[in-house]
Amino acid sequence: MCRNGSDRMAALFSPPLYLQRYQFVIEYVKRFIPRKVIDLGCADCGLLRKLKFHRNAIEVLAGVDIDCAALRERVNALAPLTIDYLQPSPRPLTIELYQGSVTEREPCTQGFDLVTCMELIEHLQLWEVEGFSNVVFGYMNPCAVIISTPNVEFNPLLPGLRGFRNKDHKFEWTRAEFQTWALGVCMEYGYSVEFTGVGVAPGQNRDVGFCTQIAVFQRDAGVSNGPVNNAVQMEPTVYRLLYRVVYPSLCDNNIFQRTLVCQVLYRAESLKREFELGEQSMQSDLTACAHSLPPDVVAGSTVVYRHRSHVFVPLQHVWTDPKVQALCGNIHRLRQALMDDSRVQLDTDRDAIILPDEGEEEEDEEETGECEEGNLTPSPVIDNSEEDWETEIG
Amino acid sequence: MDPNRPPVPPGAARMPWLPPAAGRGFMIDPPPLGRARGLALAAAEPETGRGRGRASAAASEPPVSPFGRGISLPVPEAQVGIARGMLPPVEEKGLGRARGSLSTSLEPQVGMGRGASLFMEPLAEPVPPVKSQMLQLPEAVSGLQEERVEEKKTPEKFEVDIPDPGSSLVSMIRELGIEPSKSWGRGAAPMGRGSVGGLAAAHQSLVSSVGFSSVGAEEPFPEGMTLRGTSFVGRGMVGAGRAPVSPVGFSRGPIASPELPPGPITPPPVSVALAGPPPVPVETTVAPVKVEAAREPLKKAGTKGNSITIGSNYIPIRCKNEAVFQYHVTFTPNVEALSMRFGMMKDHRSTTGEVVAFDGSILYLPKRLDEVVHLKAERKTDNQEIDIKIQMTKVLPPHCDLCIPFYNVVLRRVMKIVGLKLVGRDHYDPSNAIVLGKHRLQVWPGYSTCIKETDGGLYLGVDVSHKVLRNDSVLNIMGVIYQQSPEHFQDECTKEFVGAIVITRYNNRTYRIDDIKWSKSPKDSFTLADGSETTFIDYYRKNYGITVKEIDQPLLVHRPKERSKPGGKQIITGEILLLPELSFMTGIPEKMRKDFRAMKDLTVHINVSAEQHTHSIKQLLQNINSNPEALNELQRWGLEISPEILMTQGRTLPMETICLQSASFVSSSSADWSREVVRDASISSIPLYCWAVFYPRRAAEQAEELVTMFGKVAGPIGIKLERPIRVELRDDRTETYVKSIQSQLTSEPNVQLVVCIITGNRDDLYSAIKKLCCVQSPCPSQAINVRTISQPQKLRSIAQKILLQMNCKLGGELWTVSVPLKHLMVIGVDVHHDVSKKKRSVMGFVASLNSLLTRWYSRVTFQMPNEEIINGFRVCLLAALQKYYEMNHSFPEKIVIYRDGVSDGQLKTVEQYEIPQILKCFETFPNYEPKLTFIVVQKRISTTLYSYGGERFGTPPPGTVLDHTVTNKDWVDFFLMAHSIRQGCGLPTHYISVYNTANLTPDHLQRLTFKMCHLYWNWPGTIRVPAPCKYAHKLAFLSGQYLHSEPAIQLADKLYFL
């Protein structure tokens, strides 16, 4: 994504134009909820860094750029945050970065829901544009494509600009040129297109159009021919994989299990604590003292009870915790999940969690550093008490 | 002099790479500048001193650049331009001149002494003659000292400038492609510091490398440059300046790592650098010069004791690159915006290569460009064509101080590559998180790493660290607090959260919570950088796609320390507001800290043994060395990290003889004499004729048993003990205790000791008793928790301990070790900082009064947050000296001060500011000039020592000392592990001798320190720090935490605070 023009345009647009372009894509993502998104020409991954927060839509986020250095630059900003580990999201997210050219066909790029291509095509030679169209629309064949490019008609409004907005631009199109190309693409590959843009001209100059013109393509219904690769992560054959990170999520069974067990144990422990407090305050009340009752009498009940040196917390009780409910959906699934987990001990009916009664461990108090170990053999080195440092100092 | 000077050779053949202009260079034309700087030259020209003098004169001129930033200044300003290594406009002439100076360097290694090993001169001559140079004539030395004085003068200036290089470093890091994800308000400083030294040194080096070809800069403003370099006393250069002095007996200055195998530091790289492409002859000649430049190491190695093989958590790093090249980049016409400069340089990666460290004007590359490279760029704003001139200024050896900041940047990137996450300042491994579901927290294992240069060369210091993260957001915890105490909700929240460090849901930064704004909510709006207003709800939705669920929550406030943003564009001030819902706590919850059992769950994971410690470190090394991407990253700067941790030889100091009244014995190898001290009589005991025991009714039984037990065990220890006055209290309220004690002390003024038996852990009660007995009605007091005396099988040993402790408080003496120094006073100083930070800090001061080191005089002073500690210190010192005189009828001839709690960055301040004040203090007494040794004690260091035997790592025995390889280049220092470790890892204490006119040898320093670690009477064994420090710590803690005021002076000669 090209930000080079931003120096000149900073004064003109607020927020800066590149941010407006990002925001445009983000709004699109929020509305259409694409699951797999790929950004062609992602440069320093600015757009990807924004998109990665939209976990409710995106599950696979990919970036492609031909410049490996630019890609690497901010790659760490795509890594999961600390919090992603502390509170794993319910939905998966994988981020991948490839080095490669948008005029090459890479199987990994097929099957995406959305391809974004911001301020890229003007960096291609005109003769390459057709190949690009063929790769993106014909080969990758995504459900939707967003392409942006400078609108050359706007250039006179940019102060001090001579020639193209960036030295590397090979061409800059008028609205008509862009639309002609886009409509041609639609005809050829079975898409429909809408034109819009960001960066409105100030004052009376609105008729020059947006500073950045954007085309949003939708694949015509029923013309789905691209192979959908829902399969496990593929290794690229043409592009080079530079970076891949799989975010921790509850879709990972281990993480799910761990999160669930933590939540369940925490809930059970706090129920146990409440129970113990209640027990203490009603110590004289014999009826509240459950430990004379055999376990089968109480089993299936929804009361926390004590048997021998254990406290039994019924699953029903644990289930009342909204976080546990959110994780499991129903109590059967909860029971199922806890059954084969070594960290949780269930009773024989699998209706209650058994927790050890820690009241007895209490005596294990701080043992202030008393050394009661046997005497070690005295060292052979004996201090020479006759020494006099004064003479050594001189 | 002449014999020292290598003959000037015709040299031409040696400089094949010099452009034609160089022809001129062969004229031996010693430019005045060269004289002013070059140290070795100075020997020839007694003017050196003057050269320096000039520099300092310049220092007093105002030229502190108005351009705070280190941007290269446009030509006219260059006059002022000291701010950074400016490229002055005079290239034309400058070139010719520079060449001239190059040839002059064929003379006696110009600047060698100064430039340290870092900068090689194209030395034409083989070594041997040069060798003697170091033992330069006195003139040279005096010149140096003058320089030193000057350094002392300059600190103010260097303060002023700190932000600039600091921030430019950050931008340099940016440039390197790493987001400086630091916690605001913390963390940035150390980096900045480093860079200050580093960059300053860079400028200095720019100048000092007289011999280098293209330093056109020197000509016009030599003083300015010099000033710059020297004023950033920081590191490298300064030390270098001093080094030559050391042969004369002055013990300062860095060492050119003599222990290092010739490999890394040898100069071939440099020679290559100088010689450019086809440089064969030069290479051979230069190499030896390096050896010459190796300065005399500080004498810090002791010899006493037995040799022992130990390991330490340092990993040798090898630099394979031949050199790092420093360039100066000028933009013509000038480009102000740093971001634009970065952008323009980025577009020329084809020339510079991918491996770049650039701060806006100084560029470091691991590769050699042509001497001067001109590039073109276009300024987008006005289509102005900009000429970028990249001029080589310096060839640095790859392990140079200046490079360490980027090496650390590289290291951080490597840590990320191997899958570790940055939290705060250290890197952690979330995939191996230990989840403590019960406490709703996770412990992430990780590493705290840093590349540093020590006496042994370049090392990667790795410490195993753990991060405690909580699963709940601040909002969740607020909810819990609300349920528990709705009426004190806000107070409880303030208690819980203020001072805590949080991380956020949307970035990896950490913030310290300074306040809670109850009146604010996410619905409120704030102003964005571009001036527009937005609500918190909108902001998070728009930028991070986060929907704020709770609309009525207060906001957390973080107030960052004022400093400029990376790039210096704006100053960050004011407040940062955070949403509780999006903030997560880190660290151990306060409630958990008090819960012994819960802490046990946690410490099981956090306290690692030596075996686990080394295993973790090796695991990291393995992960790095088997990761191609990580290796590639290191390779970019030519770094290679050894797969093994450092193994070396340390020593265990001789065991000490512990002397009681008549018995004496050699301490066991576990340094524990708990049995001996209760078997034989202490040195002196105060008979207890009149003492009172206060206890609540329900502890009556325990009180009685304790008193009976006292009677049984007092005999062997040598204490005479009468029956106490017993006061049974009707309840255990604080008020009851205080009133009873007060009335007892009034009715019976001869009470020697108050003993209180208290139930439960009650800080308020303890505080009330101590306030009463230490401040209002001075009387030694002993508080005993009833639980500690409730177990009959332990009562005996407990009673013995308490009795010993009571004896100390009354002024008795327990044991000592022999210190073969006469008329000695040992002082310990420690400072207690109040956690809430708003309160004053407290300095505890303890000084020995007799030759046995068994009588101690103690004082306390309180300082306001920005008050200097030294003021209070002087008062204490004078009082202690007077007391010493009263007792001994003479003043101490030698004073050894152990000062705890001084960080590396403050050592200079101690040396340059505190010590002169202490010396001045002695002038109070006529004709009194004692010898002074000032030792800084650092407990919180990341160095760990392991013993090694039978293929296993363990903890080294008490008395293990390490005084080389991992020690500091600039000081006489050593690591001593005095205590015996039963659990965890061998954490030594670091001792730095900052001042030593007592001329104690390294052996003396080490052994005296070890002896002092034997004298803490509350523990019959050795402890981590010298006893006076521990006493001072205890005293400061008691005063700061419980008394909140100075204790009564009547108690000053007793260890009442034990």
What does this structure look like?
The complex is a heterodimer of chains A (394) and B (1058). In chain A, β9 and β10 form a beta hairpin. Chain A has an 8-stranded mixed beta sheet with strand order 6-7-5-4-1-2-3-8. A 3-stranded antiparallel beta sheet of chain A has the order 9-10-11. Chain A is 32% helix and 16% strand. With 394 residues, chain A is α/β, with parallel strands linked by helices. The termini of chain A are far apart. Chain A has 2 domains: 243 residues, Rossmann fold (3-Layer(aba) Sandwich), CATH 3.40.50; 86 residues, Arc Repressor Mutant, subunit A. With 1058 residues, chain B is of the alpha+beta class. Chain B has 35 helices and 40 strands. Chain B has a 12-stranded mixed beta sheet, sandwiched between helices. In chain B, α33 links the parallel β34 and β35. The radius of gyration of chain B is 32 Å and the shape is globular. Chain B starts with 21 loop residues before the first helix and ends in a 15-residue tail after the last helix. The N terminus of chain B is likely disordered. Chains A and B meet through α2, α4, α5, α8 and α13 of A and β12 and α22 of B.
Strand segment count of chain A: 11
Outline of chain B: globular
Inertia-based shape of chain A? elongated
CATH architecture of the largest domain in chain A: 3-Layer(aba) Sandwich
> How big a fraction of the residues of chain B is strand?
15-25%
Low-confidence stretches of chain A: 1-6, 284-300, 359-385
Main sheet attributes: strand count, strand direction, barrel closure of chain A = 8 strands, mixed
Task: Please report the number of helical segments of chain A.
Answer: 13
**Number of distinct helices of chain B:** 35
Largest interface: A-B, 68 and 74 residues
Report the structural category of chain B. alpha+beta
Oligomer: heterodimer
Share in β-strands of chain A: 15-25%
Instruction: Give the termini separation of chain A.
Output: 74 Å
Level of helix content of chain B?
A: 25-40%
Within CATH, the superfamily of the largest domain in chain A carries the name Vaccinia Virus protein VP39
Main β-sheet of chain B, in a few words? 12 strands, mixed
Fill in the CATH topology of the largest domain in chain A. Rossmann fold
How far apart are the first and last residues' alpha carbons of chain B, in Å? 62 Å
Strand order of the largest sheet of chain A: 6-7-5-4-1-2-3-8
- What is the top-level CATH class of the largest domain in chain A? Alpha Beta
